[in-house]
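Module 6 notes. Inverse folding takes a fixed backbone as the condition and produces residue identities as the prediction. Think of it as a translation problem where the source language is geometry and the target language is the twenty amino acids. Below is one complete input and output pair. Work through it position by position during the lab.
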């Protein structure tokens, strides 16, 4: 899955939840958008994890002063269903 903006992913997840709650989709369509939602959810979680690590790095203190440190995101992990 290509990198998607966090805000766009959240908006699409909201659309997916709404569509699933309306229960007007076929089983195949429901499964397809559910799978899309899972992938978007994983992408969001990865972006949140990266942001959290960046924040932790920025707030590490050295002698009472903030000390920014370099950050390299981990290599993208592929899930078995991709």
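Target side of the pair, the amino acids:
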């Amino acid at each position: 899955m290509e990198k998607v903006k966090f805000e766009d992913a959240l908006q699409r997840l909201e659309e997916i939840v709404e569509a699933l709650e309306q229960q007007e989709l076929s089983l195949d369509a429901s499964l397809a958008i559910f799978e899309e939602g899972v992938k978007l959810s994983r992408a969001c979680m990865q972006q949140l994890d990266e942001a959290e690590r960046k924040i932790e790095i920025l707030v590490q203190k050295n002698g009472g002063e903030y000390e920014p440190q370099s950050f390299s995101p981990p290599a993208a992990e592929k899930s078995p269903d991709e």
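Reference fact for the lab report: The longest strand covers residues 61-62.
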